[in-house]
Amino acid sequence: MKRVAFGFAVAVMLAASAAMSAAPGGKQDFTLINKTGLVIDEFYVSPTTTNDWEEDVLGVDVLPNNQSVHISFDRSETSCDWDFKIVDEDGKAVVWADIDLCKAEEITLFYNNGTPTAAVR
Hints:
Oligomer: single chain
Strand content: 35-45%
CATH class: Mainly Beta
CATH superfamily: Domain of unknown function DUF5300
Strand order of the largest sheet: 3-1-6-7
Order of helices and strands: HEEEEEEE
Helix content: 10-25%
Number of domains: 1
CATH topology: Immunoglobulin-like
Radius of gyration: 14 Å
Structural class: alpha+beta
Mean pLDDT: 84
Low-confidence stretches: 1-22
Number of strands: 7
Number of helices: 1
Shape: globular
């Protein structure tokens, strides 16, 4: 079901992204690039100082391998250090910790010799 809705969801995300480009976002805004070799079904972003993952940022969408999505924050957000959690299509969760989003424009998630790695640019 998610895969059928993906095309529609991408169109909605592109329209939303175009609308959001007119409104300034938070300094933590970034583009997420999936190079994990997996389909990301869920993506959570949480300040490093909290233990709550809150809600799936992708919503009903998925992020296929070799695809990207822009993640925007509220302008009033002040935290720079964040943790990421993905849940893949098989339900497996993987966490990346302590990523400084105030210095990031683009973040690529991948595995380096089986270790979850994030390249920040």
